[in-house]
Amino acid sequence: MRHLLTALLCLSLTATLPAVAADPAPQMTAQQFLASLTFHEGKVKLPGDIATLDLPASFRYLDPADAEKLITDGWGNPPGAKTLGMIVPAGVNPLSQAGWGVVVTYDKDGHVKDDDADHINYADLLKDMQEGMAENNKARKEQGYSAMSLVGWAEQPSYDKAQHKLYWAKELHTDGSNGNGLNYNIRVLGREGVLVLNAVAGMDQIAQVKQEMKKVTAFTDFTPGNRYADFNASTDKVAEYGIAALVAGGVAAKLGFFGKLFAVLLALKKFILLGVAALGGWVWKLMGRKKQQQAAGVDLSKPE
């Protein structure tokens, strides 16, 4: 099982447990479930025409509705995820242990200035983030969560100033888990906000994901009029944070590195109550994969 906690609060999950259906839903095999999804190939415009994906043959795209089906029914998450869709590798069954995906969202918080990009001490930033997470663990435990620690950079943040693209990876560990989680993050800066591409996988997949995410960075871009260079200082809003805060948690930085994290986790407690143990991930969303998939099919009607 893999989990995803994001840092930018772009997805929202309800705070109450789903109602129990009067009659159990029929079981669906993995093959039937995958056949119910529409995988798009080639050039794709994201909802709102905010950005494009020029997908190579090795990747496919799921629109927001199918992305929610995969996140909710395929990977065992509660409903309510609001995304611009998902990018998934074409040669991997997303329901298998080798499966992974990139959740796409958009933060329209304003134009992010990148003046601080060349002056960030990422070692100090990592220490601050680790201390913030450690301080938050007492409250996490009181609310029924296992302690979570930021092990370190799986890949230190790097900013491509010419392309206005930021990427980094974090290794996280949750008490009681057998392995560490990998969160690979890409941020594409635009005129009025940031395109967020968050991949979830296991640390044993880091070499593959690192290589594949370079491709994702290359084929993702804003549409004309929404690009970073299109910023109009006389009319457009400027974000209240810069590059360092994007790494630390974007809008959450305005309340302290992990001020928003705790509030979001409260809304996610129902996921813990469903019996899914966290392996670690980003600071704004929990995504879990069921521990086992039966060879004959997948019961999508209830959590494990």
Characterise this structure:
With 304 residues, the chain is α+β, with helices and mostly antiparallel strands. The protein has one domain (30-273): Jelly Rolls (Sandwich). Helix content is 24%, strand content 22%. It has 7 helices and 10 strands. The chain has helices at residues 30-35, 64-74, 122-142, 206-219, 243-248, 259-267, 269-273; strands at 43-45, 51-54, 59-62, 86-89, 101-107, 148-160, 165-174, 181-189, 194-202, 220-222. It has a 7-stranded antiparallel beta sheet with strand order 3-4-5-9-8-7-6, with helices on both faces. A 3-stranded antiparallel beta sheet has the order 1-2-10. A hairpin with a 6-residue loop joins strand 7 (165-174) and strand 8. The longest helix is centred in the middle third of the chain and has 21 residues, at 122-142. The termini are close together. Residues 1-25 and 250-304 have low confidence and may be disordered.
Which SSEs are present, and which pair or pack?
Elements: H1 30-35, E1 43-45, E2 51-54, E3 59-62, H2 64-74, E4 86-89, E5 101-107, H3 122-142, E6 148-160, E7 165-174, E8 181-189, E9 194-202, H4 206-219, E10 220-222, H5 243-248, H6 259-267, H7 269-273
Antiparallel strand pairs: 1-2, 2-10, 3-4, 4-5, 5-9, 6-7, 7-8, 8-9
